[in-house]
Every structure is written in structure tokens, then in C-alpha cells.
């Protein structure tokens, strides 16, 4: 014990605290300028999201030999009463101007159109403008679409003009992601400030954890930037946004736990350096175990087939690891440097009574101890009932039209286009095959249900043949992001794969969506058991028990199912969302289990500590009394930071934010405070089996907290 406190003094000793602060200041001075460059290092092209081994990804790579990777923007013109001669002249003039564009990757010379919906008295026209993609991804598309908009305008006098197709939709997605880092940073910071004010009731104390977590975020962003630039780490808009939420949420949680223990020790020790050393010694193992759980759980995402999911793993793990390091070094050093006054106006003085010993959580624990079995049975049944909402879950992917919380121009344009043209126009199938079998492959595609037979052709600007292979496109009758279109892709693949020696493959936007769905299904089946195994092993090592970890993992699974069930009902009947993305259950599970288990770790490590001195049942009540307030505050902070994802105008982020926030609140107020507490009280000492604590006999021990032993 003395040796462990000696290690703690390396962080908060009289001289060491200044050394720690100096090292962090140097680190921030060297790295902070690179944090803002993380956006420039993001890779948002299609390959960074798609599963690497998928057929659509292979077609995407092969097609680069025929032409640069392109994404078409589709300009749609429509007038219900029919296009006038003046409309048609303006459309022709627009097409001529678009052919002259070359900025932001626009290949104006390859512009196709105008194409009219019918030869006589047309009501609508379309112009296809290809945009060349590069490593900048979305960053290039939005300016390109703006340039196109400058030419075609927004219509008027009854003529509707919209920019849709993959290019238009991607530009709207890009706009939704624009400023994501600053938006989430400000939202998360606001939540943290408000919750710290409520928790600490101190305007001065909240500054220390806030500065520490911001330092952690800048350091993590800088480190990830260097790895993205020089080590091939894939970072995209999704992982960069989630990084901010994780660092703020997890970092503040660790700060809350450490401050609570430090406050306890300040009431027992006059020297604040000794008080912090003891706080780190007592709370450190729980914080480290919680951080290790999150880091290792995130690294399990490396087993994913989806490139976007696999890339999120190390990004999130690095963020949480840096947050853990900052909260175990910089944060305690700053607290000790500031002294007791930082707690103003509620300053903990030597010998002051511990308010948790007679607080609401102490009374809650004593109340649960009266009938623990009935309480955990009823609580479990209620959570199981909530999980029945899972039958409303529609995690089969969502269309572009349903992906936004609002209705951007590209979606309106898509609806207008589908009214007059084949629904799949603008986002065709892409087929590659050997040249010798090209005619057979083309006929197989044309004969497939769901394909417009007359639409087969060579893409504009593409080489007719490359190294014995050919590439051509085909339009589908169904919207490219619909389930019917995915079924068409399946049929086309079956047809072309059956052509002998053709080596034919089918790609394109719809094929990519289909492959992503399949990869995510695989990832769900592989990663969820891996995360559970990691959590179970860490709990077994931390608690040196088998029964307690199994009970805790069981409660987390039940909490996850209930959160998902309630969320599904809310999405259907409250928010009116059309469905969920296929990776929605996986992300919610990983975040809920990895982060939600923190609260069980905080509680059960304190229970185990107290059980060694006053028996398991008394230890349960004391542990709940001592940790109840801080865990509740931590849960509210984490729920609030994830709820900040709802500020983004994208359904997938809003759904993840809502479900994780709800799950964290369930963990905080129901699972940890009621279910786990009642289970441990009912099972008693046997919860520690096979450790020697399981052999104690405290069946008759009164469930009252021992006032002389509340902090250890």
C-alpha cells in the first residue's frame, strides 16, 4: 500500500506536481497546433467507408484504371405544365456553360445532357456533371456543387431546378458534417460546464477538469493527426466527431470519481498532497480498469470488415487512453497546485463529516436491503418488458431521403427526378468483365429484372478497354438507395457470375450499400461477443471473482436490450424516423457496454473494498452511499455529451446519441443503483466466489453504513 502511494506521489508530490504541469505544457505547446489539422487529414472517400474485400470495393479500384474515380451530380429541371421553349433554351445554355467548368474536380467536358423525359412536350430534363474524386473526398464535392449551382441557379417562375444524384447528396452530407468538431466541442463543453456546476456547486472547481479534458482532446487529436499522416491510420468525419464526445464524456467521468475520493481524503488529512496520493491509490485501480475496458473494447473494432468501423477503433482507443492519462496526471497535479480553495464555496476541511453517510444514497441502500430479492426480480422484469420494443427495431439501413433530419435540396431533387425518369438514373450499376465475354455479360445484365435494358453503355470519358477488361454502366428502375435496388444488384451479380470465364463483378453506389449491410451484419456477430469477453476478463481480474463479473455482464446486457427497445419505440412513434442504419446496434452496444460498465466498476470496487472490513452486505450499502452521488453526476455528464450528437442534422448520429444517452441513464439510475445493489445484497458474500471473501458469514449483519469507515 505504501509503495502504491509512493507511485501516486510521483504525480502529486510537492515538486512532482510542477514537473507534471511543465511536461503537459510542453506537450501542448508542441502538439496543439496540429490538432486543428485533423480535419485536413480526414479520408472521406468511398474506400475509407467500404469493406475492403467487398465486390463493390474491388470494382471501385478497378474502375480507376478506366477513368478517375468520379461521382456524378445531376441537375434536374422540371415544370409540371411542360417545359417552355424559353426553359429548353436556358437548359441548353446551362449545359454549354457546365461543359466549360474545370474547378474543384468538375470534368465539364464529359458533361452529358440535357436528357429529356420524353421527346414531345417534355416536362423535365437532366444534366449529368461528373466530379473527380481524390483523397479530399467530401471536401471537394461541396465546392464543386456550389460551382454548378452558380451556373444553373435555383429556378423560378414555375421552373424547379435541383442538384441531386450522388454528388448532390454527398454535398448535403458534407454540409451536415461541416463544423462537426466545433459544434460537438461547444455542445459537449456546455453540458460538462452545467453538470459540473450542479455537481460541485463551485464555479472555480469546474475550471480544472475542463482544462484537463480540453488538453486531452487537443493532444489526442494531434497524435491521431500524426498517425493519419505517417502511419496510415484512417480517420473520417464519423470517427473524428465521436472522438470529441468520447474524450469529453470519459475524461469528465474519471475526473468526477477522482474528485469525490479526493474530497473524502481532504476531510481526513491536513496535507493535500497526502490526501491526493491516497485518493489516487484508492480510486486509481477503478479508473484504470474503466479506461482499460473502454480502450480494449474500442480496439475490438479492428476485427470489423467495414473500413469506417475498423478505423474508429484505434481513433476512439487513443482518445480515451489520452483522456485517462490526463486525468491521472495533469488533473490531480492541478488540483493539488490550486489547494483546498478550489472547492469554494463548499470547502472540505479536516475533520468535517462526510455528507454521503446520511445522504439519499445511504437511505436508498438501506431501503433496498429490506427486500433485495423482490426488488431485483421486479427491476429485471421491467427492463425485460422494455426490451420487447426491439420488435420495432428496423436496423436494415436507411435511404438517403431518410438520412437527414430535414429535407435538403438533393432529396427534393431526387423525388422530382423519380417522378419523370427511371428512379436509378444518376447512380448506375458499374460492371467490369473480361473483354472476350463482354457481350454475354452485357446481355445478362440487360435481361435482368430491375435493369433498364437500353441504358447499358460506356461511362463518359472512360477507356473502352484496359488490359483485357471492359467497364460499362446500367441504370436500374428502382431508386438506387432502396431495398428493391439492392435486390436488383443481387440478381445482376448472380447473372454475370454465371457467365463462364467472364470474371465479372458488379459495383456502384447500390452495390456498395448492399456490401456495407452484409459487412455490418458480420461485424455485429463478431465484435459484440469480443467486447463482452474483454469486459468479463477485466472484471474478473479487477474483482478477483467469477460470480460478480457474470452478474454485472448480465445486467449490462439487460440494460442494453432495454435501451434499444425503448429507443426503437421512440424512433417509431415519437421522432417518426424511418429506420436505423445497420451499424446502429453495434455502435450503441460498444459505447453502452464499454462506458456503462464504468459505473458498475466504480460501485463494485468500492463495495469490495468495504466488504474486506465490514462484510459484504454492509459494504454494499456503504459503497452505494459513498459512490451514489458521483456516479449519478458522471452518468448525467456522459448522457449529456452523447445527446450532443443530436445537434447534427443527421438521423444516424441523432439515433446513436439518443440511444446511448438513454442507456447511460438506465445504467446510472436503475441498473447500478437498484439492480446491481439488490443482486449483491441478495447473493451476499458468495458474489466474490472463488475469492476468500466468499467464505465470510455476514447473513445477519445489519445493513447500515459504518460511519468510521466510509472512505478507506
Automatic annotation (TrEMBL):
Q: Which domain of life is it from?
A: Bacteria
Q: Which UniProt keywords apply?
A: Cell membrane, Membrane, Transmembrane, Transmembrane helix
Could you list the residue ranges that cross the membrane? 179-198, 205-228, 240-262, 283-303, 315-337, 374-393, 525-543, 550-572, 584-603, 624-645, 651-671
Pfam families, A to Z: MMPL
Q: Which PROSITE patterns match?
A: SSD
Gene Ontology cellular component list: plasma membrane
Q: What is this protein called?
A: Membrane protein ActII-3
Q: What is the lineage of its organism?
A: Bacteria, Bacillati, Actinomycetota, Actinomycetes, Kitasatosporales
